Automatic annotation (TrEMBL):
InterPro entries: Alpha/beta_knot_MTases, Ribosomal_eL30-like_sf, rRNA_MeTrfase_TrmH, SpoU_MeTrfase, SpoU_subst-bd, tRNA_m1G_MTases_N. The keyword Kinase does not apply. The gene is rlmB1. The keyword Disulfide bond does not apply. One of its GO terms (biological process) is RNA processing. One of its GO terms (molecular function) is RNA binding. Keywords: Methyltransferase, Transferase. Belongs to the class IV-like SAM-binding methyltransferase superfamily. RNA methyltransferase TrmH family. It is an enzyme of class 2 (transferase). Gene3D superfamilies: 3.30.1330.30, 3.40.1280.10. Residues 1-73 are annotated as: Disordered. This is 23S rRNA (Guanosine-2'-O-)-methyltransferase RlmB.
Amino acid sequence: MAGNSQRRGAVRKTNKKGAQVGSGGQRRRGLTGKKATPKAEDRTYHAAYKRKKQQQRRASGAHDNRAAARKRHGLDDQVELVVGRNPVIECLHARVPATALFVSEGAKGDDRLAEAVHTCADRGISVMEVSKQELDRMTGNGMHQGIGLQIPPYQYREVEDIIERVGQSGKPGMIVALDNITDPRNLGAVIRSVAAFGGHGVIIPERRSASVTAVAWRTSAGTAARLPVAKATNMVRALKQFQQAGYQVIGLDAGGDHTLDTYDGTTPVVIVVGSEGKGLSRLVGETCDTILSIPMAGKVESLNASVAAGVVLSEFARQRRVN
């Protein structure tokens, strides 16, 4: 019998089961997870990679040209240029603290351009003529309409200053606080609405928020010059400061405890507006005394942040006029 160690010439097997026919582990190793396929623009041999590099070189060159043009005219990175004839005129009407007016050579004259030049001359604001190409480089785009107004960095207020200022006025305060708003156009539009409806200030976070840049100046139509904007190191702490000063803090969100139709906005109030996508952050929402929703018809689920703020400000201003 095969494998019988008692038989002459027999060989004892070391294993009961011998080697099996198979892939030698190749298939098992082939099933091991691989890394994600890189994007086309990240593969050095791909045409998309070369296009991305060319775009980066162009952007870098444009930035260098802009920096060089600004340096030639004594502008540092913090100095802002408001461009466009209507925004410049509106900033001058609002007495924005401008320091210089740049006009491109050969710019087609009209009443707005003439008014800007004469207003600056009357106020002792320098008027300098530069080439269109130079103004393109200074502003970073060609949408300036041949004019740019130089303004210094915005001077932010402290939260305590706004509370004290409103308290001295003897009127019930109406403040707007922005949470997760990163678009400077939204910030500028909110500043404009707050000023239009008799509000007293705007609060923005110090980080992860739009700042009062030239874009915000332009959208606010110069009202940022006469409405205080404060930067809060911690938004939750700032809201609690207002609560301690007797303010009601209300957050705007769908499905709130109250609707705009039923809320009394005649008392001191802070209206907290979140972004259209993210809404209010969790801690800010938990700090609010009330969550308020805006009744809407149809299937519209949310409004742009500046539009939502304007709707609430308008209603509260109406209530205060009636009372």
